[in-house]
């Protein structure tokens, strides 16, 4: 419900000030048109005046009724900010790619469909805005943590790791919003704040879900073998997991908007929680923008959650908590009555409007003729250009993960776009003659009538490619998964086809979330497994490029692939990330879960081999303290706030050698392994770097790690501390450890 544009084209219909809507060659009136003499005397139209003064002037001219109308966004015109398939882009672990996608992304039905986090951004967004086909504020990216593998919207996120999600958020938002200082090219929005990762599971939906203080749940013994204690969203896990990507989005990405979520956190709706919105987002992180509700969230916490007794109280609670814009009609309907009853003041409404109108000013929406503004020269030529199409293909290639390659069965041998969607069949057909048989009527695969044709085709082919997996009928917004298996009889089809195949069988998986394909991993007749996620417009071509070796796979899994039996121990409603051994609760994500997996976080193979050598690394790092805290070191950790953290980082230098015969890109993943204890994860991603290395050559890579930010841990009270001892290791060289001792 939140995949829409925001207020930029929905309001300010006052004293002949109308926002631009262009249709064909005729342009409707737009705000502050210099040819309209009525605008001449308005200070808010003068670009020479500071934005703060312009905003104050505009709001000062509004009646209360007009102000209240501007608290809501119901227009919803323009392009949708789709988020499906972000996880495929995250699998590239390439932060420069994420920023490039934000700068030159792709339009609805065109370009990088379903990949990278939004469908209309930056260059193409401005081009479409200039043509009257889109607005300028987009509710993207989704940076929630992919906490549970069943979540239907996990495909929209950058994965399960907070550092990865945070870096994705910051880089993508920077690419989207541009680098012109306070001027915004497009306004991004990080959503859904916070601890939101359940849509509809086992009778619990997002409109009623509350992760609150501890309570005992008598679980269905057939589904869950033990009784569990549901944990609240603790201060510790808010600080080291759920809030991390949002903090990065605001502090580093300078995002223009944050969206609060439907759910409650510990009994309070996020859109009515002043501690979250006003204290954390606004005061601590210094959001320079507005807070918007997920669509109809204010109505949800009144009508569905019954959080307040009256609608006026709901409106007042939301505004006073720090909500600036309501996606829905609720505030427009009930705010004036709330003011009359003394529950909220007109000054509170003014404060909310300052935040939303300021973003509109920064977008240039009151600067007159759009074509005369920065980015005004962007037009049809900039939509779905050849360069954008090539980036769509490259993004899809980089996000594909090679999970298995038994006996080097891939790449396959071969005998030899306009802006459109390419299927895997079309992509493969560019390299080889194909025999295509549809083994299942649809993704549900409830019947086997078509199996015989697929089996017969496999028996004739030199190689068999099975494209299986999920789609939006299985996992989507408002639809969480019931299990982790291939739907219906897909597994049966895969096994029977592999048994009959004359040549190697390659399983290509399309999905957002993880799939338990243990059977295929263990089956020697299935030579290779490739995870493509939802790779978008150029996905079919990218898959074929990987299968035939035109591109070398370099993607890594941004989430853990669990076995099906894991689900019996973890209700989706249990928010705890850390394991609870006394309750047989195994914990979540690679950071806290030590049990068996199908494929681990960060797994991904290549067609070549890389060797790493440590060129240079520190053996110790000194942590200077602020003078008045010299005696506050206690136990085995010091507070980050007591350390002089500015520019306190360490540098690792690694030589990465490609010892194979094929050029390739490799992702270095650097993990921290803090001292044992209840505070910290088992290990934590602290840095990653993508490096391209030609065959038989070597590259030196420098990786910088900020000590306070990445080598700290969060205690049970939610306080971030630096342990006295912290060990770092480089993935795929587990025998090599760096020991850093803080020296005071």
TrEMBL record:
Keywords: Glycosidase, Hydrolase, Membrane, Signal, Transmembrane, Transmembrane helix. GO terms for biological process: xylan catabolic process. InterPro entries: BXL (IPR044993), Fn3-like (IPR026891), GH (IPR017853), Glyco_hydro_3_C (IPR002772), Glyco_hydro_3_C_sf (IPR036881), Glyco_hydro_3_N (IPR001764), Glyco_hydro_3_N_sf (IPR036962), Ig-like_fold (IPR013783). SMART domains: Fn3_like. Residues 1-26 form the signal peptide. GO terms for molecular function: xylan 1,4-beta-xylosidase activity. Residues 666-736 form the Fibronectin type III-like domain. SUPFAM superfamilies: (Trans)glycosidases, Beta-D-glucan exohydrolase, C-terminal domain. The chain crosses the membrane at residues 722-740. Pfam families: Fn3-like, Glyco_hydro_3, Glyco_hydro_3_C. This is Putative beta-D-xylosidase 2. It comes from Vitis vinifera (Grape). The lineage of its organism: Eukaryota, Viridiplantae, Streptophyta, Embryophyta, Tracheophyta.
């Amino acid at each position: 419900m939140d995949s829409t544009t925001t207020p930029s084209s929905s309001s300010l219909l006052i004293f002949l000030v109308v926002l631009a809507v262009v249709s064909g060659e005729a342009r409707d009136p737009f705000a502050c048109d210099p040819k309209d003499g009525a605008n001449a005397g308005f200070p808010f139209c003068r670009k020479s005046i500071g934005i703060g003064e312009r905003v104050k002037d505009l709001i000062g001219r509004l009646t209360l009724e007009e102000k209240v109308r501007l608290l809501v966004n119901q227009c919803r015109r323009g392009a949708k900010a789709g988020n499906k398939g972000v996880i495929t882009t995250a699998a590239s672990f390439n932060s420069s790619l994420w920023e490039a996608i934000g700068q030159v992304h792709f339009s609805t039905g065109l370009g990088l469909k379903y990949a990278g986090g939004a469908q209309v951004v930056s260059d193409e967004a401005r081009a479409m805005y200039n043509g009257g086909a889109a607005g300028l504020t987009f509710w993207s990216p989704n940076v929630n943590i992919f906490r549970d593998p069943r979540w239907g919207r996990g495909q929209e996120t950058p994965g399960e790791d907070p550092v990865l999600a945070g870096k994705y958020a910051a880089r993508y938002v920077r690419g989207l919003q541009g680098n012109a200082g306070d001027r915004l090219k497009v306004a991004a929005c990080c959503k859904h704040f916070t601890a939101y990762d359940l849509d509809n599971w086992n009778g619990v939906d997002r409109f009623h879900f509350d992760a609150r203080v501890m309570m005992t749940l008598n679980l269905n013994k057939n589904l869950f073998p033990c009784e569990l204690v549901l944990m609240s969203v603790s201060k510790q896990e808010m600080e080291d997991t759920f809030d991390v990507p949002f903090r990065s989005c605001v502090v580093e990405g300078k995002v223009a908007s944050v969206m609060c979520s439907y759910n409650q956190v510990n009994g309070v709706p996020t859109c009515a929680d002043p501690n979250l919105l006003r204290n954390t987002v606004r005061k601590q992180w210094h959001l320079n923008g507005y807070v918007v509700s997920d669509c109809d969230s204010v109505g949800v916490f009144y009508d569905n959650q019954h959080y307040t007794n009256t609608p006026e109280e709901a409106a007042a609670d939301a505004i006073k908590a720090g909500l600036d814009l309501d996606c829905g009609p609720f505030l427009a309907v009930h705010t004036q009555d709330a003011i009359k009853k003394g529950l909220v003041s007109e000054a509170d409404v003014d404060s909310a409007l300052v935040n939303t109108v300021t973003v509109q000013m920064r977008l240039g929406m009151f600067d007159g003729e759009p074509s005369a503004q920065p980015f005004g020269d962007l037009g049809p030529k900039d939509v779905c250009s050849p360069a954008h199409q090539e980036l769509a293909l490259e993004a899809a290639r980089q996000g594909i993960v090679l999970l298995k390659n038994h006996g080097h069965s891939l790449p396959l041998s071969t005998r030899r776009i306009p802006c459109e969607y390419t299927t895997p069949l079309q992509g493969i057909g560019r390299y080889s003659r194909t025999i295509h048989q549809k083994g299942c009527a649809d993704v549900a695969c409830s019947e086997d009538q078509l199996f015989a044709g697929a089996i017969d085709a496999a028996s004739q082919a030199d190689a068999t490619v099975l494209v299986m997996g999920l789609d939006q009928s299985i996992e989507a917004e408002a639809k969480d998964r019931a299990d982790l298996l291939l739907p219906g009889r897909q597994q049966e089809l895969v096994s029977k086809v592999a048994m009959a195949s004359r040549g190697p069988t390659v399983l290509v998986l399309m999905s957002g979330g993880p799939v338990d394909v243990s059977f295929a991993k263990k089956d020697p007749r299935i030579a290779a497994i490739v995870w493509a996620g939802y790779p978008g417009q150029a996905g079919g071509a990218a898959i074929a490029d990987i299968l035939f070796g035109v591109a070398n796979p370099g993607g890594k899994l941004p989430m853990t692939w669990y076995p099906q039996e894991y689900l019996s121990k973890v209700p989706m409603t249990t928010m705890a990330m850390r394991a609870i051994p006394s309750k047989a609760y195994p914990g979540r994500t690679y950071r806290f879960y030590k049990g068996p997996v199908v494929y681990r976080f960060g797994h991904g193979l290549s067609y070549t081999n890389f060797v790493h050598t440590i060129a240079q690394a520190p053996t110790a790092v000194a942590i200077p303290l602020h003078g008045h805290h010299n005696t506050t070191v206690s136990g085995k950790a010091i507070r980050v706030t007591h350390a002089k953290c500015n520019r306190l980082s360490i540098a690792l230098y690694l030589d990465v050698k490609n010892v194979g015969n094929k050029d390739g890109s490799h992702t270095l993943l650097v993990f921290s392994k803090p001292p044992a204890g209840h505070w910290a994860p088992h290990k934590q991603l602290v840095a990653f770097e993508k490096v391209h290395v030609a065959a038989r050559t070597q590259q030196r890579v420098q990786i910088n790690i900020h000590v306070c930010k990445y080598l700290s841990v969060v205690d049970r009270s939610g306080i971030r501390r630096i342990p006295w001892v912290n060990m770092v290791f480089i993935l795929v060289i587990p025998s090599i450890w760096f020991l850093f001792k803080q020296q005071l």
